[in-house]
Amino acid sequence: MARVNNFIERSLVGALSFLKEGIFADEFAARHGFLQSLAPQIKAITTLVFIILVLFAKSIFFIACLYLQCLLLALLSKVRLGFFLKRTWIFMPLFALFIAVPAIFSVFTPGEPLLHFEVIGFTFIITRQGILGAGLFISRVITSVSYATLLSLTTKHFVLLRVLRVFKIPQVFVMVIGMCYRYIYLFMEVIENTYIAIKSRVGVRVRYAQGQHIVAWNIAQLWQRSYQLNEDVYKAMLSRGYSGEPVILNDFKTNKRDWFWLCYTLTLAIVAFYFTYWMR
Amino acid sequence: MSNSIFELKDVRFTYLGKFPALCGIDLIVSKGEKIAVVGANGSGKSTLLHLLDGLIFPDKGTIRAFGQELKEGVFNDESFSRDFRKKVGLVFQNPEVQLFCPTVKEDVVFGPLQLGMAKATIAKRLEGLIAVLGIKDLLDRSPHQLSIGEKRKVAIASTLIIDSDVLLLDEPTAGLDPLTTRHIVDLLIQEHKSGKTIIVSTHDLHIVEELADTVYVVSQEKQIVKSGKPQEILEDFQLLQAHNLIHIHRHTHDDTIHTHPHLHTEHH
Lengths: 280, 268
Ligand SMILES: Nc1ncnc2c1ncn2[C@@H]1O[C@H](COP(=O)(O)OP(=O)(O)OP(=O)(O)O)[C@@H](O)[C@H]1O
Ligand SMILES: [Mg+2]
What we know:
Strand content of chain B: 25-35%
Number of helices of chain A: 10
Bound molecules: adenosine-5'-triphosphate, magnesium ion
Radius of gyration of chain A: 25 Å
Largest interface: A-B, 29 and 37 residues
Helix content of chain B: 25-40%
Oligomer: heterodimer
Strand order of the largest sheet of chain B: 6-7-8-3-9-10
Order of helices and strands of chain A: HHHHHEEHHHHH
Number of helices of chain B: 10
CATH topology of chain B: Rossmann fold
CATH architecture of chain B: 3-Layer(aba) Sandwich
Largest sheet of chain B: 6 strands, mixed
Number of domains of chain B: 1
Helix content of chain A: over 70%
């Protein structure tokens, strides 16, 4: 039983701290680097352009260049490269296994055979087109994931949220997401503290049945609390003049560097599209 | 009659139909008054303030604010609602509830933005408040990352910035260190001097004397049992003890045990 609990404890506390670090840490966003100095809406737009470029590119070489640029940007923005690579490659094995690996075989991608081998009477043929396709796929995924990760690492999340408004997403919606985000943190804190409180009263070894009871009670509590909180927060909003249509501060400022970066990105995009689609 | 702000007549309020929170409150608040509401936990102080802020409405009895009766529905009138919110500001007891924006800055300016205050005015008031409360460094942080005391300061700023005529404060100094408490008390006294009406609920008898001309004691029966000048109330040990506001202090002087009521009005 102790082991079961230990596992639950480790995974619960672990998951909480992972979430807190992953979602709420603004460590890199607070540094003074290149991307951090850009206006958030420009940063979001250019990131989007790069991702679109990656998705439509047909040459692995070009994608590799974009990937290198992304790593360079990470360096310029003072993001630790080791951390960044770990962050972005973590899901790759999964992708590779389920999508890329099957694609290299002739069953899925017919073409010029490169290699073949037999397993229990079946012949597997790896094709050149298959390898190319898989390579293209993997490089596309990793590069676009890297750009997206870089954006989220170098921008404070609430700022990212406000950027949504630039894309004409209704303010109520943005505000609700912002509040969810904020109160999820509160709830994680509540869970964590309750857990610590239980431990300090009951001792380290919580019996399994007891543990289940506590968890159930906790969930009920949390529900109750969130309902109460919801009502109280609404009161607090009303009290300060909220009347159904929130007015939110909009104070994004752009400077020369932003416009320069935007021009660079757009020029690159136009040139790339020209070469990929119209030159041939 | 023109300078009375709130008039409560036999106000009763019950949560969810079964938890009584106010049982017959009569109260008149005039313009420019400084009022403290004291009482034990659960005596209905917060409920009373929510009622005065038009967030909840009495089950029985009437409450009038600025001559207009507050009841369900009056806040549907946009202009009345806006006018009322501009005139009355409430600092909630739990700053966690009051701070719902992603950053401190957005939270502080939330009220004035909703109420249509001019951008320049907002910026100016913000500047002043962050200087007084010493929260400049907190502006870009998320409210959830702050200590309880810091949260409280931000919550106070987010209400004060509205510059309302009436300030309702629910335990504004709970959890604050002595110096910050001092700052807040000074700030409130200054606001009062500039003509504001102030109503605070508190357990902190230290600040009552300065912050109030009139003190109301609410009982566990959720009624006002006594009101008067701060000195009068603070001298009434029996009353204070009956309402959990002081405790008997026992210590030893030269081998004799000495017992006296412990009144938290001065440091020792
Ligand atoms: N949301 C609620 N649901 C049910 N009952 C409630 C609710 N809020 C308050 N009460 C009850 O109403 C009564 C008055 O509560 P209130 O919060 O006004 O007290 P208070 O004087 O502010 O206490 P404290 O000093 O602890 O802040 C209490 O008995 C409480 O149990
Ligand atoms: Mg209260």
